Every structure is written in structure tokens, then in C-alpha cells.
Amino acid sequence: GHFCDYVQRYIKQDPNFGETAAEREFNFSRGGYQIYTTIDLDMQAAGNEATRNNVPAVMDGIDVGSASSSVQVKTGRVLTMVQNKPFSNIPEVLESDPGYSAINYNTDYDLGGSGGFQVGSTFKAVTLAEWIKSGHSVRDVVNVNSRTVPFDTIRASCMPDGVYGFGSWDFTNDNEGTRGNQTVLTAMAKSINGGLVSMQQKMDLCDTFDTAKKLGIHRAANQTNEELPTYGTQELSMVPSNVYGGIDEIAPITMASAYAAFAGDGTVCTPVPIDLITGPGGEEVPFTGSTCTEGVSPEVAAGVAYALQYTVDNPIGLAGHARSAYGVPHLAKTGTTDFVRDNWTVGASTEVATATWVGNAGPVQLWDGTRDRVSTQGFGGLMYADTYIWPAIMNTADAKYGGAEFPEAPESATQQTIVAVPDVTGKSFDEAVSMLIQLGFNVSEGAVVDSSIPSGQIASSDPGAGASVPRGTGVTIFRSNGAATPVPDGLVGSTGNAAKSALNGAGFDSVEFACEAGGKTDPKKQRVVAVAPESGSDALPSNTVTLTLSCGKR
């Protein structure tokens, strides 16, 4: 029902059938057309059955919805269009039975009436695509922690001052069990928000959303918030939280088409539900077919596919349910929005891409009289329904169409680059940060430490200078308070008294003697065999320096 309605709307918006809406309506109704659609009845049946088994048409306390769209990779042919509510556009039916709907949850508003749904972490794949496109590797290391991020660390060349803004914002991870420095591969597999924020801090926000646009990703309906710069358009919201949280409402068919590009050498095709139209005499009738363009390069697509297949195949990944029952390689990413209002699985083989959404079709009245969307957690497995529907559709596709290995990703996208930590001792804080960032390190400021380096300059780093670590590793730098003094050199081998005199001259007034192996000290004659703290190290003048003497030896 919804697919047939989609086909009709598609034709009625096609200028091939008339210059005006009235003319197109007339030609559609009276043209005597035979319309051959792209729908795969086997996949459609599998999707319908899985949806019926996991998401009812009606549930108390939630306006429940589910939608799944499948497209053929590199053609845009729509193979599946499934949702939990059967189609009806008869007013009496819609008024009497909430189990029916005329709204198509799979499509944009102008092709079915839905405003789309927030896509959650499935948008992370777009940020990953820009990461690889800008020369980074999935094995680079990033800080994945929840934290407060200054807006001016988010570069945005298309915005005033070249940054997203000023001030800061706090974000958290759903998965707080994995912290610190992790590879991008791990951040994607475990869907850790902090990793994506760190990635975006090394890129241009405008470039990330330009990549999304080239992949055909857009809002399902015009933005209705008058306070936003995208008001009245289907453009995405260019905000930092979108790079990991997918806050825009997008149609499932749009997400399926974008992921088809990751599985198909970067080629993104506009969805098309029609293979052929013939007239009364059997003649072919022209219609608007799919338009295919390069969303990302084949190399970038292969890098994204590598990471998203890891998310499916590796035990740490959250998309293990997307493994094929037939051994066909799959890539996939899950997504969950705030308060678990929406749940997604989007993925593909080299032949078919599918997006499945389960969540709130709309708000319901709450106990306090307000209306809002609710969490799917309290509705008997609803939050996991996508993990059953998506595999049912894709396993049917695998049995019918098969699928090849994804193209090999370039080394630049998968290798781990080892970098030596530079010596930033004695540098100003800003100089040290600049040096480290240019080499790809994440930089954080540690405590002020006792050091003989002039106050305010960098005393040390962790890892230290010369350490070989993966690109992107976090380096903590420590400023000096300038309060320490170097312990003099040349103390070992001199007599105890001579060493003490040298220490006193350097500002160390507290000097103690100890024997190397028992006995009595005689600093006038005995020679120094060890110094603590060691010569060359920094110590406060108030610290005690211990000189170990060779007692009993001259």
C-alpha cells in the first residue's frame, strides 16, 4: 500500500507527465499506463513478516512506528518499503482504527507525508567518511572521553571567525566503560561519542556537512524552527552534536541510499521505484529515473566499509546482529537517539542497502497533560526490534543477490602511523600545543610542576620527548613554576665536604651524608659515590640532598 502510494506520488511529481500538477494528475489517471515497479516481492514479504512479528501496528502509551527501506547499490532501485501500519487513505478507516496510516514513514514529506526521524549514531559514518577523506586513518588514536569542549576548537571555515562559535558545550557517552585514548576503529565499533568529537576537532565542520550533502543526506521535511538558519529548508543542522548524534529528522530511504554509497565505490543514486512504464500501445513512456553521482571517492568508501564491516564482524562492535546468515560481507551501523526514542540499523552488502527504523511515529499525551515522544525501553523488546527486522530483509537479499567482498581499503585509511613525541621543554604553552597538534597529537594540560625551567614554560610531557606512539595519542604537557634548581653535576668522585660546598653554593642548604655499606661517615676524606636527587635533576632548594659516601675507602 505505502509503496504503491509512493509510486503514484513519484509519477505525479515527474515533469515528464505534465507541466502542472493538474495535468500530471489527469495523465496518470487517464493515460492507460502499465507501470512496472522495482519492488522485490521476496524481500518485501520477509520485511512484512519480521515487522509484524516485532512491531505491532498499535501499542498503548506510544505512537509506535517502524519502517524499512532497501535500495539496490549503484542503481537506486527501491527493493523494499515496509512499515508497521498498513496503508489506508480512507478518512473513515483512519478515524476509527489507529492501526492504519496514510503516512509513509520511509520517504520524505513530499512523497508520503512523514517528517522523518532523528538518525542517531548512524550519522557517525558520515563523520568517518570526512575523516578518511581528509587523510586520517581508522587506526589513528583519539580521546574518547565525555568532556566539555570549547566551541572555538571546532573549525568551521564557512562560519564567522572560522570557528563554530565561542563558549563551550558538554557531552556524554552512552558507553562510559571505554575511556582514554582509543583508535577510531574502536570508537566507531563501540559508537563512542567522544571519539567522534575528537575527530571533528581535527577537521572542518563545513566539510563534514558538505560530505553529507554529496551523499544525498537531507531532512525529510523543511526545518520548522524559525530560530535556526536552516529554517524553511531541508538542509542539515550544522552543529557539533550532529556529527555523532544525528539530530536531524531523515527518511529511512535517504539513509539506505547514503550507505549504498559506502558499499558501492562511493556512488550515491537517488531512489527510483519504477523500472518501466508503457502506454496503451505498448510504447515506452519516459519518466525520471535515478541520478547517480560520486558521493565520496572509491577509496574513501572502501575505508568506511572497512570500519563498518569491523563493527559487524568484531565482537566489540554493536552491529553483530547484522552478520549475514549466508556469509555475505555486510557493513552496518546502529543508532539510538536521546531517551531511546528511535532505534536504527543501517547497512549494506555490495548489492543491497537497507535502513530499518523503530520508534515514535509521533508524540502521545503524557500523565502531566503534555505531548511528547517516549522512550521505547518500556515496551517489551521494542528497542531491539530493528535487530530482527533488518537481518530478515538482508538475509533474503543475500540469498537472492549474493554479495562480494568490499574493495580493499587504501593503506592510508587503515595503517597506524607511529610518531615521535617532540621535545617541547622550554617552549611556551602555545608553542608546545602548536608543535604537538601539527604532528597529530591530542594535547591536554597537566598540573604545574616544580622545575628549574623558567616559570610558565613547559617543563615536561607525558609521554616524554622521543617516545614513539600512534598518531593521535594524547600528550599531557606540564608547565614549570620556576621554583626548582638543578642539582649540580660533578659531585660523584669529590669529597663529601667539597660536594656539600657545591650544593650550598647552588642554594641547597640541607645536605645529609650516608655510608655506602654501613660504618661512620668522614666527609672530609671519603668520596661521594651517589647523589639523591641525582645530579642534573630538579629539586626545590628546601629539599634535602643525600650524599652517599664510600665509607672506609679513600
From TrEMBL:
Residues 415-481 form the PASTA domain. Pfam families: PASTA, Transpeptidase. SUPFAM superfamilies: beta-lactamase/transpeptidase-like (SSF56601). GO terms for cellular component: outer membrane-bounded periplasmic space. GO terms for biological process: peptidoglycan biosynthetic process. One of its GO terms (molecular function) is peptidoglycan glycosyltransferase activity. SMART domains: PASTA (SM00740). Keywords: Glycosyltransferase, Transferase. It comes from the Bacteria. This is PASTA domain-containing protein.
